[in-house]
Amino acid sequence: MRIPFIAGNWKMFKTKADAVKFAEEFKSLYKGTDIQAAICAPFTDLEALAEIFKGTDIKIGAQNVHFADEGAYTGEISVSMLEEIGVDFCIVGHSERRQYFAETDGTVNLKMKRLLDSSIRPIMCVGESLEERDAGKAFDRVRSQLEQGLADIDAEAAVRIVIAYEPIWAIGTGRTATGEQAGQMCEFIRNTLIDLYGEDTADQVIIQYGGSVKPANAAEIMNMAEIDGALVGGASLKAKDFMEIIDF
């Protein structure tokens, strides 16, 4: 039985003081639910969030990680550093990381493997550009990302993975895939996982939709059969908006 999972991705927003203010408000609004909630925040906010959310069901996530345990990687953060704080999830391969910081399917795969050897669950992002969708290549692109990102990861580990389908053309643009479009791609992702791992494993993997999710469209998206949750960007920056999405 897959537990619905809604995660906020703050991107490069909120100082520690901002994060504390949000967390205290969100904690007061959060009354317990059958939906798993998490906040994926900048590294500098994570320790404060972990402290405020202690004793609740609210999880915290990082937005990136390096695949090496340690070394001369200026500016990077390791899995063990995140574990020490108490991080529960980590986003891997977000389109903005791919676009601006040279993230590739190969580095996604390395990060996935390292996270799966730890206590932190990866949220692996996949999605096509507008050009790829218009050219009829959306499904080919997403399948390629899945196959390369999940290479040499076995079924036992795969059940811990969260897949986030984020069409690049709908991230931060105000455009949103229709429920039908999102549901169709998430069904395709599920079927690809069946091809890779078999039905029993694929049925356990949580698949989220991300891309301009907000209170007004959360119900349409979440009610699609193969969508188990959402990766929320801008609407997760306000506690009331994020809670409304969780309460869809």
From TrEMBL:
> Which reactions are catalysed by this chain?
D-glyceraldehyde 3-phosphate = dihydroxyacetone phosphate
Q: What is its EC number?
A: 5.3.1.1
User: Which PROSITE patterns does the record associate with it?
Assistant: TIM_1, TIM_2
Superkingdom of origin organism: Bacteria
Where are the active-site residues found?
A: H94, E166
Which Pfam families does the annotation name? TIM (PF00121)
Q: Any one cellular component term from GO for this entry?
A: cytosol
Recite the UniProt keywords alphabetically: Cytoplasm, Gluconeogenesis, Glycolysis, Isomerase
Compartments reported by the entry: Cytoplasm
> What pathway is this protein a component of?
Carbohydrate biosynthesis; gluconeogenesis; Carbohydrate degradation; glycolysis; D-glyceraldehyde 3-phosphate from glycerone phosphate: step 1/1
GO MF terms held by the record: triose-phosphate isomerase activity
Presence of the UniProt keyword Isomerase in the record = yes
At which positions is substrate bound? N9, W10, K11, G172, S212, G233, G234
Which InterPro entries did the record assign? Aldolase_TIM (IPR013785), TIM_sf (IPR035990), TrioseP_Isoase_bac/euk (IPR022896), Triosephosphate_isomerase (IPR000652), Triosephosphate_isomerase_AS (IPR020861)
Listed under GO biological process in this entry are:
gluconeogenesis; glyceraldehyde-3-phosphate biosynthetic process; glycerol catabolic process; glycolytic process
PANTHER family documented for this protein: TRIOSEPHOSPHATE ISOMERASE (PTHR21139)
Q: What does this protein do?
A: Involved in the gluconeogenesis. Catalyzes stereospecifically the conversion of dihydroxyacetone phosphate (DHAP) to D-glyceraldehyde-3-phosphate (G3P).
Q: How does it assemble?
A: Homodimer.
Family (UniProt) = Belongs to the triosephosphate isomerase family.
The molecule here is called: Triosephosphate isomerase
The gene it comes from is: tpiA
